[in-house]
């Protein structure tokens, strides 16, 4: 295992300076958002193992976050026509990822529900991600893992504060939207 102190790591990066908040923020953003072609390719292969497109993942995410949705609402969430949403749901239903059910209050309304297989897609992706991250963490020293844990908890606390501020300033905004776009 290689033990790299924070100061050494920052100084070893070209053009990086250990002093200055904005420089440090830039370095952190680069580290946190870097996604190599190899990383992206691995994620796409995982999605394709489930025969999923990004559109399918978008549908699964919407259903997981909001629960069963009418076809009309699903089309709105996806920003597609009703006909396109129908075609997407048809393909996903054939794969066993979603199912249509008539509404209990109004039988004319068709609701799209996640199936167990559809819900499992994210479980599989999380399990794969945890396995890969576990391998990466295995390369860190205990001191590096401790520092990383402190930093991750600080990020979560800051994110929670931003979400609380966003919720307080616009109570009509959905928590999911506020979570994805904190105020600047």
Task: Name some characteristics of this structure.
184 residues; mainly alpha; Arc Repressor Mutant, subunit A; 9 helices
Summed up, what is this model?
The protein is mainly alpha-helical. 67% of the residues lie in helices and 7% in strands.
Account of the 3D structure:
The protein has two domains: 86 residues, Winged helix-like DNA-binding domain superfamily/Winged helix DNA-binding domain (Arc Repressor Mutant, subunit A), CATH 1.10.10.10; 44 residues. The chain contains nine helices and three strands, in the order H-H-H-H-E-H-H-E-E-H-H-H. Helix 5 crosses helix 6. Strand 2 and strand 3 form a beta hairpin. A three-stranded antiparallel β-sheet has the order 1-3-2. With 184 residues, the chain is mostly helical.
Q: CATH topology of the largest domain, what is it called?
A: Arc Repressor Mutant, subunit A
CATH class of the largest domain: Mainly Alpha
For the termini, the CA-CA separation is 39 Å
The radius of gyration is 21 Å
Biggest sheet character: 3 strands, antiparallel
Poorly predicted runs = 1-12
CATH architecture term of the largest domain: Orthogonal Bundle
Q: Roughly what percent helix? A: 55-70%
Mean pLDDT: 81
The run of helices and strands is HHHHEHHEEHHH
Instruction: Estimate the global geometry from the Cα principal axes.
Output: extended
**SSE-based structural type:** mainly alpha
Strand order of the largest sheet: 1-3-2
Proportion of residues in β-strands: 5-15%
User: What's the CATH superfamily of the largest domain, by name?
Assistant: Winged helix-like DNA-binding domain superfamily/Winged helix DNA-binding domain
Task: Count the DSSP helices.
Answer: 9
Number of domains: 2
Number of strands: 3
């Amino acid at each position: 295992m290689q033990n790299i102190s924070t100061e050494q790591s920052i100084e070893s990066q070209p053009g990086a300076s250990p002093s200055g908040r904005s420089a440090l923020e830039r370095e952190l953003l680069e580290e946190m958002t870097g996604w190599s072609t190899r990383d992206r390719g691995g994620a796409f292969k995982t999605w394709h193992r489930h025969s999923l497109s990004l559109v399918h993942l978008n549908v699964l995410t919407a259903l997981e976050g909001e629960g069963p949705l009418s076809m009309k609402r699903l089309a709105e969430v996806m920003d597609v026509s009703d006909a396109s949403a129908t075609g997407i749901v048809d393909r996903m239903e054939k794969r066993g990822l979603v199912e249509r059910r008539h509404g209990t209050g109004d039988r004319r309304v068709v609701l799209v529900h996640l199936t167990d297989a559809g819900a499992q897609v994210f479980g599989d992706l999380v399990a794969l991600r945890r396995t890969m991250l576990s391998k990466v963490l295995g390369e860190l020293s205990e001191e590096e893992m401790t520092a990383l844990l402190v930093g991750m908890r600080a990020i979560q606390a800051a994110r929670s504060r931003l979400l609380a501020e966003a919720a307080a300033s616009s109570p009509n905004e959905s928590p999911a939207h506020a979570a994805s776009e904190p105020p600047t």
